[in-house]
Input
Amino acid sequence: MRKIFLSLAALTVAVAANAFQLYIQNTDIADPAKRSVSISTAEDVPDVFGDGKVAVTFYAADKIVDVTLNNATLKGTNASEVLGFTCDENFQYIYIHLVGKNAIIADGGSTTGVLLQSPTTGSKTSAVMYFMAKDPGTASLEISGKSIIMQANYNATFCFGDLIGDAFPVTITTTSANQPVFYGSSASIDKQYLTFWMADLTVNASEKNQITMGYESLYVGGEIRTEGVTVKDNKTFAKNNVEYAGNLSIVCPYVVKVGDTWMYPDKEFTPAEIKEGSVSYDKATRTVTLDNVTIDGPLSISTNKAVIYLKGKNKFTNTTSKTDERIGFYGDAGQLNGDKDATLEINGNDKCYGIYATDGLEIGSFKNLTIDAVLKGIVGTPMVSEKDVLKLNTTPMDIKTTQAAIGEFDNLIMASSAMKWSVAATYSTSSKTLVDADNNVIKEIKLDKPAALEQIANGKTANGKFIRNGQLYILRDGKTFTVTGQEVK
Output
């Protein structure tokens, strides 16, 4: 088997060791002088080819080179790579952010689709390339070629998908007579890693195209759907204990999990923890719908701007005394909402949290939320972030805990002035918890609209409501009260 160890561009890079280089080409560009771009200085390039489809941004503090492909097609026909990156100590990571449909076409007999490498053999600096979708619902990537599709040299890692977020489709097609699809080429002292976190992978290859070769570690986050194919020794795809060549299909789950069971797009979702009702997921809106469910276990969603939407009566219990929060939002800007007559009841058996959010949560306007027998009721993550806020609208709440009703958000916002706490309560941004007038942590509390008093005329005494200096007061039997029932002298 003929292996292509270094392309021409890679050899050029090796001469200038310890300096990063980003190389991109598109031979379909009309002007020959603009068909290939080599970037080795940290200056943003908002429009690489002048067609508005490729942009490069540098984030020096995080050692990141960010490349956005917006419905872009990159194409190469020479003995080089179509997309290549060599890291240095200053820029170690390259993010390929995908918008819409994108393609990398290695159309030459010796053209590599993607090349990633650290500067030299034995380098202590590792190059890492992430392929991530800005909108997993619409983004996709196709890579095709006649030779090696993706090559890692020295210390280099390819990662498909993000730890948080839905999977997006990656389709790889090779017409090579005998080259591997993913090739790791370097001395034994260097490490190559290949990771499929959240990417639905389809490989179209012949029985002479080995999927992986030379990688130190292989991780697959989804299910391998090609019959008989497994991951052998955490290093390579194999079938019948032989390194596998041929077509391959990997399907990743949705970002929804109940208990230890992930939801898959093409499978019925019936984990044992769901005792009644149904759980569904809309990938386009990132919405989990709970329809009259009783779940004896935890539910989590791992994506930004996730929504859990309630229909009817919903209940979470913890009869098995697990420590997992009953509802977990893993991502920023989560939302809990529902129909106006929907309810949510959580009982943690004094072993777990009620609702947890890693970076901000908004609770909308449904009929009622009850959280009982939990360590903490509604919990954030101790951090300082403009998104790490709990926003409460008009959902009435009844929270009973052993440690804290609400805490660990950077702040709390009351969106409606109509809602009142059952006791005097404020949110302390220093201790990051809901406290009473004496600065004690509140463990039990209710949130509701105060009961309205009817305006009546009774004999000589006029009763009713009035506003003074923007504050609502109640006049009853000649005395003045606040809306919480406290008499005003």
Summary: The chain is about 0% helix and 50% strand.
